[in-house]
Amino acid sequence: SIFQDYSLRDSKLCRNIYDGKYIVRPLGKSDFDQGYIDLLRQLTECGTITYDDYEKRFNELKESSNTYYTLIIQDKNVDQRIVGSATLVCEKKFIRQCGTRGRIEDVVVDDRCRGQQLGKVLVDLLTQFARDKCDCYKISLECKDHLVNFYQKFGYKHEDQQNYLCRRF
Ligand code: 16G
Question: How much is the pTM?
Answer without folding.
Answer: 0.92
